[in-house]
Amino acid sequence: MSFSRRTLMAFAGLALSAGVFTAVAALPPGFTDYSKEKFDAALKGSKPVLVHVHADWCPVCVRQERAFKELSGSEDFKRFNAVQVNFDMDLDFRKAYGVNNQSVILIFKGGKEAGRIGGVTDTAKIAEFLASVK
C-alpha cells in the first residue's frame, strides 16, 4: 500500500490537531535538565541534590510535577539543587543509579544517595521526604 505525499501530510495534520504529538513538558520551577556534567558538578556542591526521574507519558510523573510546583517556594525545596532526569533519554543516569521505573524521586547528599521514593504523588508525603534529609 502506498500513500501520496498529500495523503501523508493530511494524516500528519490530523494527528497534530488531535494532540497525538505533544510538545515536551516544561520543567517544574526550580528544576534543571539532567546532563552528566551538570549532575556530577552538583554532587560535589554543598547543597543536596533532588532528582526527579520523569517521563512525559507518565501520569504519576505529571502529578509529582504538580506537587513540586506547590513546593517550589518552600524553604525545604529551595535548599536543593533540583534536576529532572528524562526516563526515556537519560539511560546513563538510570544505569548508574539502578533506576528501573519512572516517577522515582532521589536525594543525594555528600555525593551519595541519601533517599529514594517511587510513585508518590501526595504533596505532603513528598514534602516529608524532602524534609527527612538534613
The percent range for strand residues is 15-25%
**Termini distance?**
62 Å
Question: How large is the count of helical segments?
Answer: 6
Shape label: globular
Average pLDDT reading = 86
What's the total count of β strands?
5
**Broad CATH class:** Alpha Beta
Which H/E pattern describes the elements?
HEHEHHEHEEH
Describe this structure in words.
The protein is an alpha/beta fold and about 130 residues long. The protein has one domain (about 25-130): Glutaredoxin. About 40% of the residues lie in helices and about 20% in strands. The protein has helices spanning about 5-15, 35-45, 60-70, 75-80, 90-95, 125-130; strands at about 30-35, 50-55, 80-85, 105-110, 110-120. Strands 1-3-2-4-5 form a 5-stranded mixed beta sheet, with helices on one face. Strand 4 and strand 5 (about 110-120) form a beta hairpin. The longest helix is centred in the first third of the chain and has 13 residues, at about 5-15. It is globular, with a radius of gyration of 18 Å.
